[in-house]
Amino acid sequence: MNFSSIKTSFQIICIAALVSSLNGCATKDTGIVTSGYKGVINLEAIKLGVPEEAIKSASLTFVADANGAQGETTQYLSRAYDKDNGQYCLSYSNGQPWQLRIIYNSEPVSKENALAKLKSILPPSAPEETKVDNSEVTAGKKESPVEYHFYGDNLKAEIIYANKAATAVKLLTVRNIMKKDAAGDKTAAAGKTAPAEEKKAE
To answer: pLDDT at position 82, please?
Structure first.
């Protein structure tokens, strides 16, 4: 092996290592990123279901958003943007992944790109799409109609369009409705028992 081939092999190894470090570590079974590498996670590897600890460890990619923290809900914003200038916003309820939003503030993204992105951010275990509600789009009355996509009973996606024609998207959301509803039921139950406990104390 001559010097040129050794140099080429070394370059390939370096590139592979760099790509691996930017993607972060992922489990073979789920395909979900489980930790950042030296504070970095590639946004293209982000899906709903990434553990909160992984986002915390990627401090160069994400920052805690105090404005989105409420009760037992925490929120993180990406410092960087993806190739379509989308900013990522991840929310957790009681430490569990609840919601992933991609916000296109500077310029809306095409519907085609948004639908492709939606498929890429669904959890690997997500079932096939079971229902689409585009009634707001077909009605043509709202300036920013919302289109809903359902995946079984637990996953819901929302596509908020930037125009009546529904050709460009300004906000893409995937939400775990089961986890959030369960947290809401728990809060409601606590609220119902509070007056009884206060009365007893009196």
So the answer is: 94
